[in-house]
């Protein structure tokens, strides 16, 4: 099980040790990712418009369907990022069920993930190195994109179910 708490953006998250200086780079990264996804969506919409305006037939419908589907996925990401821009931070506590790494965009860069409760969180390399499977952790993140601001090992006084 995991627990979630919501805090105001204007106040630092209490007892987690997330100073306001740590939240600023996370919000800047969120704005940067929002701009990147918005640019990808604009390029996708332009491509769909050009396909429709050209009046091409046959195989162009397959291309149009694929590009429009990718556009819907990118639009979903844009909406989630925009909703997180002014959203308060959320804190999730729980046991790390799984930890893994994979390459994004085939070989471009390595991404690190952990599975805590019902959420999958993308971590930076330092946080990823310090957290192991089966640890009880406290993660401060944005509510919809699950971008992590802070991840720390946490020793609860009692685990869910009365275990210590």
Provide the fold topology.
Elements lengths: L2 E4 L13 H35 L5 H26 L4 E15 L4 E8 L2 E5 L1 H6 L5 E6 L6 E6 L11
Antiparallel strand pairs: 1-2, 2-3, 2-5, 3-4, 5-6
Describe the structure.
- The protein contains three helices and six strands.
- With 164 residues, the protein is an alpha+beta fold.
- Strands 1, 2, 3, 4, 5 and 6 form a six-stranded antiparallel beta sheet that branches.
- A hairpin with a 6-residue loop joins strand 5 and strand 6 (148-153).
- It starts with a strand and ends in an 11-residue tail after the last strand.
- Residues 7-17 have low confidence and may be disordered.
- Major β-sheet, in short? 6 strands, antiparallel
Oligomer: single chain
Strand content range = 25-35%
* Number of DSSP-assigned strands: 6
Structural class: alpha+beta
Please state the average pLDDT score: 84
Q: Evaluate the radius of gyration.
A: 20 Å
The residue fraction in helices comes out at 40-55%
Order of helices and strands: EHHEEEHEE
Cα shape = elongated
By DSSP (H or I, 4+ residues per run), the number of helices equals 3
Distance between the termini: 14 Å
Low-confidence stretches: 7-17
């Amino acid at each position: 099980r995991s627990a979630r708490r919501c805090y105001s953006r204007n106040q630092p998250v209490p007892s987690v040790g997330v100073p306001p200086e740590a939240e600023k780079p996370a919000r800047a990264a969120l704005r940067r990712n929002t701009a990147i996804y918005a640019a990808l969506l604009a390029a996708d919409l332009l491509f769909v418009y050009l396909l429709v305006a050209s009046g091409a037939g046959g195989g162009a419908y397959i291309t149009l369907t694929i590009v429009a589907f990718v556009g819907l996925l990118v639009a979903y990401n844009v909406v989630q990022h925009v909703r997180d821009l002014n959203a308060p931070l959320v804190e999730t506590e729980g046991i790390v069920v799984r930890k893994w790494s994979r390459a994004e965009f085939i070989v471009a860069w390595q991404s690190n993930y952990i599975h805590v409760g019902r959420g999958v969180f993308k971590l930076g390399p330092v946080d990823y190195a310090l957290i192991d499977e089966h640890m009880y952790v406290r993660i401060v993140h944005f509510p919809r994109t699950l971008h992590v601001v802070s991840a720390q090992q946490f020793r609860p006084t009692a685990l869910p179910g009365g275990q210590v």
